[in-house]
Amino acid sequence: MTENQQHLEALPGEGKKEKVRNMFNNIAERYDFLNHFLSFGIDYHWRNQVLKIIKAKKPQSILDIATGTGDLAILSSKANPHSIVGIDISEEMLKVGINKVKRKQLDSLIELKQADSEDLPFEDNKFDLAMVAFGVRNFAHLEVGLAEIKRVLKLGGTLIVLEFSHPRKVPMKQLYGFYSNNILPAFGKIISNDSSAYTYLPESVKRFPAYDNFTDIMNTVGFKDTQWRALSAGIASIYTGEK
């Protein structure tokens, strides 16, 4: 781990939030390209798996936490909700997302705004469905963020989390480890010109409490009927729970 990564992991909540915000501000213009390029386009498939769940739930109001550049918020419009709100702490990521929403003429349906996932600016019991794609591992306080999401969900509302995990079976475990520790940081640094973002990613994935460990935390916060499903041999996973 680099000195910068060690510093980031050791920071108290507010310090980590600021570091994460600055990191994503720095790579915002290249973020979409890097996501698709470095995942070989598999991230499209992962989000479409989330969309299937959203469509089955038929939500009227959706909250997208850590929306980034708005990819999942935009995709979720295919479920025909009445409203979608996306929040993120990175203003530069949001600028990219807002422009995408306008280009797709979805600005009457989707609102993107800057907000903290651990202090959501919404009343209790507001949304039918909440979702987080590749964002919960960046929460400074995981339980606080999950509790806030639960607070703003309606009774019976659904939380969907799409997050990187760590493959556990040979040979994918070894292949993914080599790729995430060597190839991904090298290409990420060259393309984004940021030395921290794509070295932070594999370290944050290693520290994320994946699989049953994460659903256990969801249960502790008060979510019910929690489940998880591995995608692409465990490179990512989808977690669901209800309020």
Output the radius of gyration.
Answer: 17 Å
Q: State the secondary-structure class.
A: alpha/beta
- Percent in helix: 40-55%
Task: Walk across the major sheet and give the strand order.
Answer: 3-2-1-4-5-7-6
The third-level CATH topology is: Rossmann fold
Task: Count the DSSP helices.
Answer: 9
Report the top-level CATH class: Alpha Beta
Main sheet overview: 7 strands, mixed
For CATH, the homologous superfamily is named as Vaccinia Virus protein VP39
Q: What is the element string, with H for helices and E for strands? A: HHHEHEHEEHEHHHEE
Q: Please report the total strand number as a whole number.
A: 7
First and last CA, distance: 37 Å
Q: Tell me what portion of residues adopts beta-strand conformation.
A: 15-25%
Q: Give the overall shape.
A: globular
Question: What is the residue-averaged pLDDT?
Answer: 90
CATH architecture: 3-Layer(aba) Sandwich
Query: Unreliable runs, pLDDT <50, ≥5 residues?
Result: 1-12
Please give the domain count. 1
In short:
The protein contains nine helices and seven strands. It is α/β, with parallel strands linked by helices.
Can you describe what's shown?
With 243 residues, the protein is an alpha/beta fold. The chain has a single domain, classed as Rossmann fold (3-Layer(aba) Sandwich), CATH 3.40.50.150. The protein contains nine helices and seven strands. The protein has a seven-stranded mixed sheet with strand order 3-2-1-4-5-7-6, with helices on both faces. The radius of gyration is 17 Å and the shape is globular. The N terminus is likely disordered.
